[in-house]
Amino acid sequence: MENKRLLLATVLSLAILVGWSYFFAPEQPVEQAQAPAPQAQPAPQPQSAQPLEAIPGAAFTSASGKIVTVETPLYTAKLFADGGVLQHFILKNYKTGIEPGAANIDLVSRQAQEKAPLGLIWNGAPTWNRGSWSFEGSDLTLSDDQTGQLSFVCDIAGARLVRTLTFRADNYTVQDSVRVANQTQAQLSGRLAFTLAGTTLSAEGDSYNPTRVEYLAEGGLESESDTDDLAKGLTFTGQVRWGGLLSNYFLLAIAPQTEPATFKALYSDQLYRIAVEKSDILLDPGSEASVAADYFLGPKVRELLAAAPAELSRSISYGWFSVIAKPLVLALDWLYSFTHNWGVAIILLTVFIKLVFWPLSQKSYKSMNQMKKLQPMMAKIREKHADDRVQMNQEMMQLYRTYKVNPMGGCLPMVLQIPVFLGLYNALMGAIELRHAAFIEHLPFTNYIWLADLSAKDPFYITPLIMGATMFLQQKLTPAAGDPTQQKIMMFMPLIFTFMFLNFPAGLVLYWLVNNVLSIAQQWWLMRKA
User: What is the DSSP pairing of strand 140-141 with strand 67-71?
Assistant: First the structure.
């Protein structure tokens, strides 16, 4: 009885964890960062609500209309000569969909362009509208490990801003270095903000891949995906490593090169805007100072983020089970290097995990079979001592000792496997390798597109329905609980899981389905051997 209760609690706990993800799209858990060495810096201010104009701005208008193009093997960037504001940032290796002729992803939409991504704000004034810009140079074409620079000059309110953007052929980072010179006869103080803007980076209502704002500060990685809260404005001042707009697969981020700084975010008119501001710039007449930041605009590829500055690799978060998820991702990559099919790699990884837990599963099934044999005797003890629980428990324990049965033995091995499932769940949810990765492109003997994108749901719900059927069969093979109520609840679990898995990414459903099939084979083999 105790064994079945623990098993029931385990299964229900897993169902709640998965169901919560499905219905409520939880935010990414906070990751604790290592505290930096104490510095004589202003104390960080807590996050707080700000008015809608927390990030000053105005619709971008270009005076000259001249466009400067930067070509690299990874992207095509088009910038306005008036200040270096982005017109387009097109990713060459990523498409908007799997259909033939799908366009490459452009991280700067028409709506975002109007809010001047890569624009500078000086003392609260948008330089793209208030300043006078000049540019001398030409388009850049970079290859291999080359770098290239574009330089822009702005005169605004007694200050001259000399802006140099550095592009790299082998990464998605853009370095922004600004020299601020005082052209007045008086002391000049100022604040310089670097900005980005973007629309949603995931499908509308995608609970598995929400678009969210995150920033990494001394307290850890903070995340906010609720657009109602972001519409009020978000502000944090302190040791900001970076702040960005991201989904499971893409990232637009700003990393200041000097701290402290202020990170701001705002959601308005279906548009996300972020800014990192450096304040307390104090210039004597004729003097100048340098302020710099790094941008990242691109896919969340682990190797590229690891080479990026300011711990941008922390934007790939596996939650509480990262210690399990990270090696599983590496194992999946290694298997793919042989199979060249991510679906096959998931199947092989599932087989490997099953082999690792094979001894524990064997012990669990044997323990449940032993408990099943004791059910009649346990029922008699409960009936005999219905009014004396102390005596009933004593005789139960004596029964377990006599037959050398551990009442917890059937469930503990299963409990130990739950962190592995959740680790793999988080790993697959954040693996950009699965985006638009095909397993079986067409439904067999038809021309219908089927499992052509492992990051999307099965369009015909075939795999989740088969998964539910295998789970039902697995329940039938598992020794039944003595309590009829528990039996009924357990038989409902396949239906509940099938409903939840209908819209799961196909890669996750494939893992669960293969795991079920292997579990059924193992139980059948054990029953035949017995």
Answer: parallel
How many whole angstroms separate alpha carbon 350 and alpha carbon 333?
14
Helix, strand, coil share of the chain (percent; to 5): 40, 30, 35
Residues of the chain with pLDDT under 70: 1-54, 56-58, 61-64, 205, 403-404, 406-414, 416, 478-490, 530
The residues pairing with 250 across neighbouring beta strands, listed in sequence order, are 299
Domain with CATH 2.70.98.90 in the chain: 47-317
What does DSSP assign to residue 97?
-
Return the structure tokens found at 145: 């490990």
**Digit-coded pLDDT (tens) for 277-312:** 998 899 999 899 999 999 999 999 999 999 998 999
Strand order in the sheet with 220-224: 132-135, 147-156, 159-168, 173-182, 288-299, 250-256, 242-246, 212-217, 220-224
d(CA 503, CA 499): 8
Query: Cβ–Cβ contacts within 10 Å for residue 337, how many?
Result: 9
**Do residues 312 and 253 make contact, with C-beta atoms less than 8 angstroms apart?**
yes
Tokens coding 454? 């492992």
- Backbone phi, then psi, for 242, in 5-degree steps? -165, 160
- Report d(CA 119, CA 275) in Å as an integer: 10
pLDDT, position 7: 43
The overall pTM is greater than 0.70: yes
Contact between 318 and 326 under an 8 Å Cβ cutoff? The reply is yes
If we measure between CA atoms, which residue out of 504, 440, 509 comes closest to residue 471?
A: 509
Of 202, 338, 193, 211, the residue nearest 275 (C-alpha): 193
Question: Which candidate, 387, 364, 398, 349, places its Cα nearest to that of 508?
Answer: 349
Distance from C-alpha of 236 to C-alpha of 251, rounded to nearest angstrom: 19
Q: 321: closest CA among 422, 415, 223?
A: 422
CATH code that applies to domain 47-317: 2.70.98.90
